[in-house]
Amino acid sequence: MRQKLILLAGLFFLLSAFKADEKSTITIFMIGDSTMANKVLTGGNLERGWGQMLPGFFSENIQIDNHAVNGRSSKSFIDEGRWEQVISQVKKGDYVFIQFGHNDEKPDVKRHTDPGGTFDVNLRRFVNETRAKGGIPVLFNSIVRRNFGGNTFSAVTVKEAVQQDDFRNSVSVKEKRSSEDSITGTGEKLIDTHGAYLDSPRNVAEELNVPFVDMNKITHDLVEGMGPVESKKLYMWVPANEVLACPKGREDNTHLNIHGARLITGLTVDAIAKAVLELAQYIRHYDFVVAKDGSGDFFSIQEAINAVPDFRKNVRTTILVRKGVYKEKIVVPESKINISLIGQDGAILSYDDYANKPNLFGENKGTSGSSSCYIYAPDFYAENITFENTSGPVGQAVACFVSADRVYFKNCRFLGFQDTLYTYGKDCRQYYEDCYIEGTVDFIFGWSTAVFNRCHIHSKGDGYVTAPSTDRGQKYGYVFYDCTLTADGGVKKVYLSRPWRPYAQAVFIRCKLGKHIAPEGWNNWDQKDTEKTVFYAEYKSSGEGANPKARVSFSHQLKNLKGYEMDTVLAGNDGWNPIKSGNRLLNIKR
User: Fold this and answer.
1) Which of 442, 471, 526, 529 is catalytic?
2) Residue 567: inside a domain, yes or no?
3) Which of 96, 158, 369, 438 has the most other CB atoms within 10 Å of its CB?
4) Which of 263, 280, 297 is the last residue of a domain?
5) Domain around 231
6) Residue 184 lies in a domain
7) Residue 482 appears among annotated catalytic residues
8) DSSP H/E element including 333
9) In the predicted model, what is the mean pLDDT of residues 267-282?
C-alpha cells in the first residue's frame, strides 16, 4: 500500500510539473480597430497599430495574438464572427484586451452603436464571455485624434473627424488638406472628437470590476504636450513620393507611424502594469526593438546599432532582437559603446562569407573579412543571440569577430566550422557564460584574454578546439571553467589546443571531456620550439577524454587554482568583474 501511495504521489508531481509548464505561456488576445491592428508591411508602409508593437514590451512568457482589424466597431466585430473566433481560443489565465470606439461613432448601420446603450451592451458581452472561459478582460478607451483648435467642443468637428478614417485612402493629400485643416486647427489645445464613447469602457469597467486603461488620457497628454507641430511626428504625416505605400503622401491625424506606435505602446504598458498587477512582472522596456514582422523600430540589427548615439557614456543602450534569421553583416563600431543586444529565442544573426570568397574587387576576403559580425565597441553585452556562418566546411569562415574590451556573452551560440569564434583584440578581455560554440579546426582562436564559464564546446570533426595567439608577457590567454566538450558521432581525434603563436596559453579547469579528446591532449603544430614557451594546463578534468598520464610532456596539471580565480583572470587594471555585475549590465526597465 505504501509503495502505491509513493507511486501515486510521484505521478501527481509529474502531472503537476507538466501542467505548470503548459501554463508558463500566457496569451493576450487583442480585439479592436485600426489604431490597435497589425498593418501590412508592403511598399514600406510606415503605419502601425499600437497592438502591433506590444510583443516588443513583454517577455516571452507572454504571447500576443492581435485580432484587431481596420474599420471595425464593437458591433461589426461581433456580426462578422470575429469575436466568436477569438473567444473559442481563450483559455483560463489568458487576457483579452478590448478597445473600440473610433468606428462605433460612425453613422453607418453596420458599425454604429450608442454610448450608454448598444456600445455598452457589446462591451459587457466581451467581458462576461471572457470571464466565462476563465480569461481576464481589460478595457481600453480610444486613443486621441490629433485635433488642435480652440477650447470649444464642436459637433461639426466630431462628424468630420470620424469620417477621416473612411476617406483617407481614397483622396489625395491636396484634396484632404482643406477638409483636415478645418479640424486640426492651429491652437494649443486638443478638441475631443470621441465624446461619450470614451465613457462607456470606463463605466462598464467600473460596473463589472474590470481593469481599465485610460488610453485617451495617455495619448491626449502626450500629443497636447508635444504641440501641433511636433505631434505630427507620431502620426501618418508622409510627404508625397517618399513611400511606395502612399505615393501621393498622407496627412492622417488618427493613425500612428512606427515612432508614434512604439512611444504610445511604451506609455500604455506602464499603465497596464498599474491596472493589471499580474502582468507587471512580464513587462520590459528596450531602447530599440528589431523585428522582421514590423513590431519594432527597425527591420535590421545594423539599423538599430547605427541609431545608437556615439559614445553614450554612463548608460547602456538596450536592443531587443525578436525571433527571426537576420541575414546581414553586422559591424558594432568603436563609437557605439555600452550596447546590450538581447535576443528572443530564435534570434539568429547569420551570413555566409568565407576566406576564399572574392570581394567586389576579385580579391579573397581572407579570414578576418569572412566574419558575419564584427564587435569593436567596448562594454558590449549579448544575450540569447546566435552568431552563425552558414558557408559550411569551406575553410576559414568566422561567425563572430571580437576586437573589444570588456565584452560579455551570455547564453549565446556560435555556429560554424573552421575559425568560428575569432577573439581578435589584443589586450582585450571577453567573458562567455553558458554559451554553445561549435566547429572543426581552430574554432576558438585569437589574441584576447577570454574566459569560458559553463560553456558547451562541440567538435563537428577531427581537429583542434583552440588556437590561441597569446602575446608574450600577457598574463592569461584562454581559461575554460566547468565546460563540457562533446563531438559529432565518428569524431575520434580532437586536441584541446595548438599554438597559433609561440606564447599561446589555454587552461581547462574542471571540464568534462568527451572520448573524442586525444589522449595526448595538446598539439605543438609541428613547432618543437613552442613547447618551451606555451602554457597549456588542466585542473581536475573529468570524462572519457580526461587522461593526465598520457598528456604531452610540455603540458601541466595544476595542483590548485591560485591566480586562476575567474575574477582575477578578468580583472585587468580596472577590476572588471562581469560575474559579480551580472544582469546589472542590461539596464532594462522591468
Assistant:
1) 442
2) yes
3) 96
4) 280
5) 2-280
6) yes
7) no
8) none
9) 98
